[in-house]
Specification:
305 residues, alpha/beta, five-stranded mixed beta sheet, rod-shaped
């Protein structure tokens, strides 16, 4: 019997719930109507219980209905079971509707800057009871194992089972300082970058190659080497001091381009980069996660203003 119970736990739970509602309403017909099932289905559930344990639970005839002594005892147990199920339902509903508490977000290092910090501050003002746990990591990693609610990812997406929500696109620029251009000719084609010192990210997936676009088709070119760094702020600093050429997203370089301290080149060859939010699940998304995604969609355009 123990083996049977363990192998049929789901069925046993259903039978017990059926018995509880029958005993509670004092009628197979009333319980069937409440549960939206047929009377014969509930009769079979009770029959299976009684057969499994060789015990009479309900004394019934065509005109009378009463619980046996064993049925009374089981009914008391089922009251506690039903209460536990109801409390579990309330708890799960609270989880799904809760817009407060911890929200773990992973972002790439390029977003670890004052502009994006200000965006997060705006979000916090509207959701003061959310505790933001921000992880700065250029590796997507295992969102499930790390209990990450939302991961922001720039560029091409790796093959994964995560759900992707497109947030926006950023323009990219190839830039260098005025001083650098005074002593170096601007490249007329991306392939000319092999003759220039180029500042690149350590985590760049294409290594010592940069990606460009020709009539919508992307291609890679070799670049000369200058500094290699992890920080977007450091990359911009190296470009500003004349160390070489760098690639930068519009919201990190716009200010310097507008004031003339950085000048662009190869404008016709650059392409947009997507920013996506990656989630573990599309369905059953908590209010906390949904509100954060909605806030990002609203606030992210301010990065480019």
């Amino acid at each position: 019997m123990c083996s049977y119970v363990s192998d049929n736990q789901a069925k046993l739970s259903i039978w017990l719930q059926s018995f509880y509602h029958i005993a509670l309403s004092g009628s197979f017909s009333k319980a069937a109507k409440k549960l939206g099932q047929s009377r014969s289905t509930l009769t079979n559930h009770v029959f299976e219980l009684e057969s499994l344990y060789s015990v009479r639970l309900i004394n019934r005839t065509t005109r009378s209905f009463s619980l046996s002594r064993e049925g009374d005892a089981l009914f008391e147990q089922c009251k506690r079971l039903n209460l536990a199920i109801s409390e579990s339902h309330e708890m799960l509903r609270d989880f799904s509707q809760n817009s407060e508490g911890l929200l773990r977000v992973k972002i790439p290092s390029v977003l670890d800057n004052k502009v994006f910090h200000a965006l997060l501050s705006q979000y916090k003002k509207s959701h003061p009871n959310v505790i933001l746990d921000i992880m700065v990591d250029n590796n997507l990693g295992d969102l499930v194992a790390e209990k990450v609610d939302v991961a922001l990812h720039l560029g091409e997406l790796p093959d994964s089972n995560y759900i992707c929500k497109r947030l926006t696109t950023f323009n990219t620029y190839v830039v260098a300082s005025k001083e650098y251009w005074r002593s170096h000719p601007k490249p007329s084609h991306p392939s000319d970058l092999i003759n220039h010192p180029c500042i690149r990210y350590r985590h760049c997936k294409t290594g010592n190659k940069w990606s460009f676009s020709d009539i919508g088709k992307q291609f890679l070119v070799d670049i000369g080497t200058s500094h290699i760094c992890d920080s977007d702020e450091m990359l911009i600093s190296f470009a500003l001091d004349g160390s070489g050429i760098a690639t930068a997203l519009d919201f990190t370089s716009k200010q310097y381009i507008e004031d003339g301290t950085l000048e662009t080149c190869l404008e016709e060859w650059t392409h947009e980069v997507q920013l996506n939010a990656l989630l573990q699940h599309r369905d059953n998304m908590s209010s906390r996660v949904r509100n954060f995604i909605d806030a990002l969609i609203t606030l992210i355009p301010s990065l480019n203003t």
